[in-house]
Amino acid sequence: MTRRFALIIDPIGASEERADYADTFTVVDAAAPALSVGELSTQRGDGVFESIGVVDGHAQEVLPHLERLANSARLCDLPVPHHEQWRQAVAVAASQCPAGEAVIKLILSRGVEHGPTPTAWVTAAPASDFATVREAGIKVVTLDRGYGLDAAEQAPWLLLGAKTLSYAVNMAALREAHRRGADDAIFLSSDGFVLEAPTASLILRFGDRFTTPAPTGGILHGTTQLSVYEHLAGRGFDAGYDRIPATDLSKPDAAWLVSSVRLAVPITAIDGVPIPVDRTLTAELNQYLLSPRD
Ligand code: PLP
């Protein structure tokens, strides 16, 4: 695919039933203007999104992504997306993806200011080539996210568990990591616990036990982390969820950032301290993540 593909969805009510939703989709030229200047997604980042990995035309883990989109919509008081309508839109976008790796994005915006309905669209585009970073790994630094571990409960309006379009903070954290000579960041809560990366989940290995921060509402529950855990369970490993103190980051036997498109990248250093890399397991995880998964 050299060009992006885009279709606009005319969102229907969550309970409306039809056999086919094709007439609610409008394919648009992805290179041409399509949104109104009154769009709240662009003015305020007021909307939610998902990025789905596509391998050889197969959209990965569509159901978990649609469930998370619906959860994000609920947290933001947006109309809950119609599951089957969005599933069919993803299938149309996937059919436009050629062999190799691509990414489908789903966007649900609050729409135009004072407008009657949300705005929704789906895009497909070739993915960046992550083959090298999956092998070579990344250096990360820890960054204070500025909230306590209980922030999601104390201040639900921060929308911490929703995948909102307001990613300016996440991008600023990545720029800060680059300024500090690293490739990526791990957010810490202000009370000293490990959270997530700006665009990925963290998995740590201690001996034969794998752990990741418990998704208590303050972080996104990663679909890739769930897939990796399924694979690890199948291999007989113990993989669980914990409240992980930041001090534990100095001593893992291996660590990865995992996300839907970059997949599993091994961490080679945290705050300048080298972390052992398990190349064989990393290759196995990526091979699994690149296999067709529903
Ligand atoms: N955490 C954050 C903040 C993210 O933005 C992402 C993905 O973009 C993830 C975790 C990983 O989620 P997934 O594995 O579903 O891509």
Automatic annotation (TrEMBL):
Task: Please give the InterPro entries that the UniProt record associates with this protein.
Answer: Aminotrans_IV, Aminotransferase-like, BCAT-like_C, BCAT-like_N, Class-IV_PLP-Dep_Aminotrnsfr
Q: Name one GO molecular function term.
A: lyase activity
Task: Respond yes or no to whether keyword Lyase is given for this record.
Answer: yes
What domain of life does the native source organism fall in? Bacteria
Q: Which UniProt keywords apply?
A: Lyase
Does this UniProt record's set of keywords contain Lyase?
yes
Q: What family is this?
A: Belongs to the class-IV pyridoxal-phosphate-dependent aminotransferase family.
The name on file for this protein is 4-amino-4-deoxychorismate lyase
**Naturally occurring in which organism (per UniProt):** Microbacterium murale
